[in-house]
TrEMBL record:
InterPro entries: Ald_DH/histidinol_DH, Ald_DH_C, Ald_DH_CS_CYS, Ald_DH_N, Aldehyde_DH_dom, Fungi_Gprotein_alpha, Gprotein_alpha_su, GproteinA_insert. This is 477_t:CDS:1. It comes from Funneliformis geosporum. Residues 415-864 form the Aldehyde dehydrogenase domain. GO terms for biological process: G protein-coupled receptor signaling pathway; pheromone-dependent signal transduction involved in conjugation with cellular fusion. The keyword Cell membrane does not apply. Mg(2+) binds at residues 48, 183. CDD domains: G-alpha.
Amino acid sequence: MGNCVSHKADNSYSVSNRQINKLLKEDEKKLKTEVKILLLGAGESGKSTILKQMRLIHAAGFTGTERETYRSIVFTNITESMSLILESMEYFKIPFGDSENMQYLPLFNSPSPSIIKGHPYPIQYFDSLTKLWADSGVQSCYEKGHQYALHDNMSYFYESLERLFSQTYIPTDQDILRCRLKTTGIVETLFQLSPLTYRMFDVGGQRSERKKWIHCFEDVTAVLFVVAISGYDQCLVEDKDANQMQEALMLFNSICNSQWFVKTSMILFLNKIDIFREKIKNSSVKKYFPDYTGPDEDLKQTTHYFKRRFQRLNRSNIKEIYPHFTNATDTNLLRHIMRSVTDMIENLSLSKFELRLDQVIAIIVVVSLIIIIKSLSFRNEVVKFVVGVPIEAKPGWKGGKILDKPCLKDASNPGYITCYDPATGQLLDTIRAHTKDDVKEALKKARDAQQIWVKTTFSERKRVLYSLLNFIIKNQEEICWVSSRDTGKTLVDGKFGEILVTCEKIRWIIKHGEKALATEYRGSSPVLLHKLAKIEYQPLGVVTALVSWNYPFHNVFGPIISSLFVGNGILIKSSEQVAWSMQYYSRIIKTCLMECGHDPDIVQFLCGFPECGEAVVRSGVDGITFIGSCEVGKQVMKAASDNLTPCILELGGKDCAIIRHDANLSQALPIIMRGTFQNAGQNCVGLERILIHESLYDEFVLKVTEQIKKLKVGSSLNDDDVVDVGAMTMSGQGERLQNLIQASVSEGAKLVLGGRPFTHPKYPTAQYFEPTLLIDVTSHMTILKQELFAPIMIVMKFSTDEEAIEICNSSPFGLGNSVFSGDQNKGEWMARRLRCGMVNVNDFGATYLCNLPFGGVGISGFGR
């Protein structure tokens, strides 16, 4: 009989082997939750800028050491670009406007000096760059930059020379985003978005770098292909005879149809849309792409043309192309776009994970375990469904009578709502207004359905939300059409305010909702150690949401999503202003519930005049959410007291933006413009008071005047031109606003722009108001006493921080505010002293993130 004994060395080997196996298993586990994204595209497309944005959005940003490095890069950019301009002036035979500027040629024919840490840029370059940039010959050559591959962002730097050459200059985030550093080799960026880890690989886009691409082609989850849409008239850096856009089309064709990416989804970023928007006004698309037949200055048609050019290159029947128009230097825009991108990628990754589970299930024979695993995969199953979009919503719709005096109520047809497009005056439909009897019936249906819905699992509820999210992403254009047709908003406002925020809320609830509602165990005092306490969250029953009209899709689906997830039924009482779109939105959620196997009566839609809303509040529902005006909010609260029904009131606002003396106006101005004119100013958190430090006041007024003059008013669906500001949804607002403005002028304010209703040349009965600039406003004026909800910028002056705080806090409203400051600590110091529910620092609208509590104080309401 033999004995087998381990040798000491064998034991050591066995331990090492176990460690290796353990590491391999850990690596395999990581792979299952890891997403690999390839960032590809031709040179100068903006790929590196997107990577920088990922650092800002999902990591800690840039360190002081990195910013010091970028300080040298910025200097190299501005000197080498000027050298390129001067060289090109000679090539194009463009003379200097001022011949004395020729003295600076030797300076830029020499290599740029190294920048010493802690020292400012050499002063001789400030003098020469300032004078050269002001030279008419240099400006003329700069306009030809597309012919010699000049960097897109150089005007940004040349117009900021005084700041760049200051003693204390450190590159801002925008400086870093806009400076150019050629990508060589492979750059990997890692960021975590629970539950997935993202590895993004950027490979240099110039021809000399593309041979390295193939080293990254294995195990790719998605390809993010970046195209500079503004490059349609530009040459390549490495080949002045080649067109950037043609090069991008050739590359995309090769990548999209490569054997490496047969089943890999392609995300297409048509980048630099801001530059493209301005460029098409002066540079003909037809000159470079003769098959384009639309108007050269039509943003909608030109962008659609290039999007279709890329989409048609896809030869696969199973692969999808996900196009997005982007501006990689706009952090807020890219944050929203990347959220929808990551939603799509996570769905792809979850699908892969389910396939791995199926392989495991095949070798497991224990029936109970199979059931558990199937239930886990069931929660992520997407049920696809279809809901037809109304023909009236489609762009260019010509039907519908043009109403002489558009109004919701028609004396000849009482009990019905007249639905019309406020941007054109076209009649959409006539819909019966719901009554008290309808409210009773709706509540009964919802209560009956809730008795069954409350028994569903979180997995079943998530399945509904996944399916709804999938539908919204697939049908986002149609949803925006409907919203735009019913409210007169622009399609851009629809994408931001309807689609992106709703998708974000669904995504957040799917990921974090169950954890937020988990049972909590609480400890007790030493005397009661033998006692155990816990908190369980139970559904209320049937709740109601009375929602406003300014964002009809999001305002309706926000409370629906939350209510369904916690197990409640819900009555949606929408504003009569958007009765037409509610029919489509109702079909979406009810079809989704039916296709997922649930009773659609769990959600009830009601749309009627004020008596309908009062009946809903007094009906005996178990909770009330109201979004609307302060006056109606008070009535809701009074009616709710009959049954002591708990209320959340989100009422009006008179939000302030305070621009301190140390603020960066170049960065603040576009944010202020968006905060004021987004959705034609019809935002509860819209900026209605702009407070400017006296040292910046005149400069701000001058710059903002030029920006407001450029705004285009009209219908996104029916006008051929690109529209910046849409219609006023409610009728009769023009006269009210004009009277308020005239009263302010008589009280001492100065009207710079606008101030009256705008008459559309094609739709004279449409409801528009001119983008307005009213300056020199003071706290006692009538216009500051009420919410405007309109495209009106009110500008006020202050001398000290204390004065600004006093002006801001003098309003009875207290929803949100913004503070702009070059000193983050000072900005936060001021923010803490403002009487309101939410404050942004150097931003607008960030407080609307779905993972933050939202609400105000004072007459702006309460509840979070």
